[in-house]
Amino acid sequence: MTKPVTAVAVMLLASLSGCGRSSPSPPQAKPVASNIEVTKLDDGSVRIKTSSAEFELSPRTYLRASLLADAGKRSLDDPAANQSGSAVIADGKPVTDFTVDPATISISEASGKLGPSGKRVDATAKSAQSGLEEKLAIIDAKIKRFRQVG
Fold it and tell me: What confidence tens digit (pLDDT) does each residue in 5-40 have?
């Protein structure tokens, strides 16, 4: 009777001996460098260019999108001169005088799900009329707006 018990103990010991070892981790892929070009201009505007599109954030917070094609840029946007991109109602009155402060523009690598292939642009726009402040974040050419009373 000791032979079957010994055989079971040897098999159990053999199967458990590998439990403490970790399997080798797969090799890490090298991060892909971003092919997005971001240009900050002195007037508070920002130009973001990818292989197929271009986005222009005006000093008045208007974000214009253009598709790059063989014949040049194509866009459905046709903003008026000095077109505002932001509007809120404060105390029952429209506020549309938001202007990007060029000193607040920062450009960095995107993080999270975008990984190193994206870019992030942060800026603050202010309204002289109301004192409101708007935080802008363009992440891989997707825009998010956050309004704060400042």
Answer: 444 444 444 444 455 555 556 555 555 556 788 999
pLDDT digits (tens, 9 = 90+) for 111-138: 766 556 688 899 999 999 899 999 998 8
Whole-angstrom Cα distance, residue 45 to residue 123? 10
pTM: 0.66
Rounded CA gap, 41 and 39, in Å? 6
Three-class DSSP category at 8? helix
85 CB-near residues (< 8 Å, 6+ apart): 57, 58, 60, 61, 62, 63, 98
